[in-house]
Design a protein that fits this description.
By secondary structure, the protein is of the alpha/beta class. The protein is built from twelve helices and nine strands. The strands form two sheets. A six-stranded mixed beta sheet has the order 1-2-3-4-6-9, sandwiched between helices. A three-stranded mixed beta sheet has the order 5-7-8. This is Enoyl-CoA delta isomerase 1, mitochondrial.
C-alpha cells in the first residue's frame, strides 16, 4: 500500500521532464561580465539532474567566484524548460556507498557556499525547479522566474521522502513558516504566479535574458553599499540554518546513508525510475 501510494504520487507530482541525464561536454559554464557579475550556467542535459559530477563543478565554480571577488552571481540553466530537476535519482539507487557519502557531503558544501556566500546571489529560473532545483534557487538571495507552465517547490513527501532539516530551514527562511509547513507536508508544487504570491520568487520574467537582466538589476542595488557590511549582515541573518547543519553535518550524512540502505526505499526508487523511463519512451 505504501509503495503503491508512492508510485501514484510520483505520477501526479513529477513535472513533465525526464530525470535521466546523459554525459558529454562541460557540466557548467562560468562567465564574468564587465561589471563583475558572474553567470553560472548548469548544462547537464537534459534536465540538470544534480549528480556528484555536476555538484563538484558547481562547488568549484562557487570557489572561483569567491576567489575572484565577483560582486555577484547569477545561477541559471542552459535548458529552455528546466532549471534543475533536483538530485539525480541514480546516485541513490543501488549506490556505491563511498560515492554516496561524497555525493551528499558535496551537496552540503554547495549549500554552505551558496546560502552563506559573501557575494550577492540571484537565480534566473528559466524552467521547472522541483526538489533540489528549488533548494538551489532558494539558497540565493533573489529569484526571478520565467513565466510559463513551470512549477517550483520541495515535493519530497510525495515520494515518501522526508526533506532534510536544512532543506526545510531554507524554505522557512524564504517564505512564511506557515506557508512552508503546508507546502512541505503536501508536496506542493507552486505555479509561477503562486510562487510570486508567497515570495518564493521575487519577480517574473518574459524569458531567460529578461530574468538575467532583472537579476543584474538586483545585484546593482548594492553598488553603493559597503560589501563587507552587506556580507556580514546577510550571514548573521542566515547564521541559524548554517550553524544547525554545521553542528549536525555527520548526523545528516548518516541519516541519508541509512535511508539509502532501507529495502523499501530502494524498491520505491526502482518504481520511480520505471515511471521516468515510461515517460521518456513516450516523448
Amino acid at each position: 500500500m505504501f509503495l503503491r501510494s508512492i508510485v501514484n504520487n510520483a505520477k501526479r507530482f513529477a513535472p513533465n521532464i525526464r530525470a535521466m541525464s546523459s554525459q558529454g561536454g562541460p557540466l557548467v559554464d562560468l562567465t564574468v561580465d564587465n561589471d563583475g557579475v558572474a553567470i553560472l550556467t548548469m548544462q547537464r542535459p537534459p534536465v540538470n539532474s544534480l549528480n556528484l559530477d555536476l555538484l563538484k563543478e558547481i562547488s568549484k565554480s562557487l570557489d572561483e567566484v569567491a576567489k575572484n571577488k565577483s560582486k555577484g552571481l547569477i545561477l541559471t540553466s542552459s535548458s529552455p524548460t528546466v532549471f534543475s530537476a533536483g538530485l539525480d535519482i541514480m546516485e541513490m539507487y543501488k549506490p556505491d556507498f563511498k560515492r554516496a557519502e561524497e555525493f551528499w557531503t558535496t551537496l552540503q558544501d554547495v549549500w554552505f557556499k551558496l546560502f552563506g556566500s559573501n557575494f550577492v546571489t540571484a537565480a534566473a529560473i528559466n524552467g521547472h525547479a522541483p526538489a533540489g532545483g528549488c533548494l538551489l534557487s532558494m539558497s540565493c538571495e533573489y529569484r526571478v522566474m520565467v513565466s510559463g507552465k513551470f512549477t517550483i517547490g520541495l515535493n519530497e513527501t510525495a515520494l515518501g521522502i522526508v526533506a532534510p532539516t536544512w532543506f526545510m530551514d531554507t524554505m522557512c527562511h524564504t517564505i512564511p513558516m506557515r506557508e512552508a509547513e503546508y507546502a512541505l507536508t503536501t508536496a506542493r508544487m507552486f505555479t509561477v504566479d503562486e510562487a510570486l504570491k508567497v515570495r518564493l520568487i521575487d519577480e517574473t520574467a518574459t524569458d531567460k535574458a529578461d530574468a538575467i537582466s532583472k537579476c543584474k538589476d538586483f545585484i546593482e542595488k548594492f553598488d553603493n553599499i559597503p560589501p563587507l557590511a552587506r556580507a556580514i549582515t546577510k550571514q548573521k541573518i542566515r547564521q541559524g540554518p548554517i550553524e544547525r547543519l554545521q553542528k549536525n553535518r555527520k548526523a545528516d550524512l548518516d541519516e541519508f546513508l541509512s535511508y539509502l540502505k532501507h529495502p523499501k526505499v530502494q524498491q520505491s526508487l526502482e518504481m520511480y525510475i520505471q515511471i521516468l523511463k515510461m515517460k521518456s519512451s513516450k516523448n
